[in-house]
Amino acid sequence: IKKLEETVGGKLLARSTRTLALTPEGEIFLPVAKRLLVDFDNALVELNELFSLQRGNLSLAAMPSFASTHLPQHLLRFNKEHPAIKVKIHDVIAEDAVSMVRTGKVEFAISFDPDISSDLNFETLFTDTIIAAFPKNHPLVNVQNMKWHHLVEHPFVALQRPSRIRLLMDNMLAEQNIFLNVIFESNQLATVVQMVATELGVSAIPSLYKQQMQSLNVEFRELTAPVISRRVGIITKRRYPLSKTAQVFIEILRHSYQQKSMQKNSQNLLKYSSDV
C-alpha cells in the first residue's frame, strides 16, 4: 500500500496507533482496486485455460489438395482431444498459404516446400509424387508402365502458371525435351480432376488427390521418366513463437506421419525379405 501511495502521490489509508481507515481518495479507489483484482484473477484463469487448451482458437492455411484429403483426419483427432478449441481453415493455393504465414494471418501452413526462404522454416512431413490421371475408358488404361511421353499424345489439362507444380513440371520436362499438349488450364486441382472425369483430356496431378479420383470417373498411374515429386510439410515464420494450440496440432501431424513412415519402411523391409 505504501508503494502504491508513493506512486499515486498521496495517502489512501489514514493510519494511527489505534485505527486504520480509508482516506476520501482511498474510498474512491477501493471499488476500482477490487475490480482490478477480479480482472487479474480472471486473466490468470483465462491464461491457464489457453495453455491447457480448455479454450482458444487455431488458424492455419493448407493447400486444397491437403485440406480436402489428409487434413480432416488430423482435425478429428485434435477435436476429440481438445473439443473447446475453435479451428479456422484457410484452404488456399500453395502460394497464398505461404503468403499468409509471412503476413501473420495464420501461425502456420501445410503446403509444398517453398524452397529457399530466409524468413520461413519448413519441416517435411512426407514426399508427394506427380501421377497420371485420365478417364476410365481412355486408351491409356492399357498402359501399365506409364511414362510422360505417353501423355504428350493426348489433350492435356494443366494447372495455370505461376502454380509451383506447373512450373516444376514444365522445367523438368523441358530438360527431357518433353512438351505437353496443354488445351485446358485451371488454377484449382479439383477443377482439373473434374475436367479429366468429364473426358476433356488427361492430366498429371499430386498423388494427394487419389481419394478424389477414386470417387470419380478417373484412373491414375505412377509416372516415370522422369519421376517428379515435391516435399509437403509445415511452414512457419522464422523467429516467431507458436501458440500452445499450434504446437499441439503440429505435434499431432508429426506423430501421424512418423508412424506412416515407419509402417512404410516395415512393409518395404518385409517385401525385400520375401523377394530374397
Percent of residues in β-strands:
15-25%
Shape: elongated
Query: Could you give the count of β-strands?
Result: 11
Q: If you compute it from the alpha carbons, what radius of gyration comes out, rounded to the nearest whole angstrom?
A: 29 Å
Q: Main beta sheet, described?
A: 7 strands, mixed
The low-confidence runs, each spanning 5 or more residues with pLDDT under 50, are none
Between the first and last Cα atoms, what is the distance in angstroms? 82 Å
Mean of all residue-level pLDDT scores: 89
Number of H/I helices: 10
Q: Structural class, from secondary structure content?
A: alpha/beta
Order of helices and strands: HEEHEHHEHEEHEHEHEHEEH
The helix content is 40-55%
Description of the structure:
The chain has 276 residues and is an alpha/beta fold. Helices cover 44% and strands 24% of the residues. It is built from 10 helices and 11 strands. It has helices at residues 2-8, 24-51, 64-67, 71-81, 94-102, 148-152, 164-175, 189-197, 210-214, 244-275; strands at 13-15, 20-22, 57-62, 86-91, 108-112, 120-135, 156-159, 182-186, 203-206, 218-222, 229-237. The strands form 3 sheets. Strands 3, 4, 5, 6, 9, 10 and 11 form a 7-stranded mixed beta sheet that branches. Helix 4 packs across helix 10 (244-275). The radius of gyration is 29 Å and the shape is elongated.
